[in-house]
Design a protein that fits this description.
Elements: E1 2-6, E2 9-18, H1 20-26, E3 30-38, E4 41-42, E5 52-58, H2 61-64, E6 75-81, E7 94-107, E8 110-122, E9 125-135, E10 138-147, E11 156-167, H3 168-174, H4 176-181, E12 191-199
Parallel strand pairs: 3-7, 4-7
Antiparallel strand pairs: 1-2, 2-3, 5-6, 7-8, 8-9, 9-10, 10-11, 11-12
Length: 200
């Protein structure tokens, strides 16, 4: 049994993990089966972003005017930019099955309720099996995989999404991409259903 509290998020898990000593010392495969649950998982607390800091430093006027009254101070701008982060990679030395049950998940502006399903991670591939949750005022069922086994810089993605009675207005408010592609959603009432297949 495991209970973790990080910020506003809580995670509970139970199950079995095998070969963990060889995984830590020899980088061998970690095998396991876990049941993971949470009353609130705020993913925004774990997400970092690149920042640019600009600091204006000005020389001391008193020290710069020691020789002549006509000498002026200079402003020096220092810009620090963090390096672009590495792409997300599914570890190849994991063989895990996660049965999830989350009451609420927050991701950017998206609010997900009653998320249940199975996620397996094996050989650099993460698969979702019968993942179901409530979002955008409706319900969503998802199956698919995210694969970084061959090239982490060019991962393959295959997803099937079944949206049922999703609200136009809520989708517009929570998905920035919809604001850019379909701005009409902001003034559209009612709901819609859709079957989406994504391959990338």
């Amino acid at each position: 049994d495991m209970n973790i509290k990080i910020g506003k998020s809580d995670v509970k898990a139970n199950g079995s993990v095998n070969n963990y000593i060889a995984y830590l010392l020899k980088d061998e495969t970690l095998n396991g089966s876990l049941n993971v649950s949470s009353s609130l998982l705020d993913l925004n607390e774990f997400m970092g972003d690149s920042t640019t800091e600009s600091n204006n430093t000005q020389t001391d006027e008193s020290s710069s005017n020691t020789n002549t009254d006509n000498e002026t101070t200079e402003s020096v701008e220092v810009v620090e930019t963090t390096n672009e982060s590495e792409p997300f990679e599914i570890p190849k030395n994991l063989n895990l099955t996660l049965k999830s049950n989350f009451n609420k998940v927050l991701f950017q502006k998206i609010v997900i309720d009653n998320l249940k399903g199975t996620i397996s991670v094996k050989d650099g591939v993460a698969k979702m099996n019968s993942l179901k949750f409530n979002a955008f005022g409706g319900s969503v069922a998802a199956n698919g995989e995210f694969n970084t086994a061959k090239d982490k810089y060019k991962p393959t993605v295959n997803f099937n999404l079944d949206l049922a009675k999703v609200d136009f207005k809520t989708t517009f408010e929570q998905l920035d991409v919809v604001k850019e592609i379909v701005p009409l959603f902001a003034k559209t009432g009612g709901n819609f259903s859709a079957d989406i297949k994504l391959s990338s």
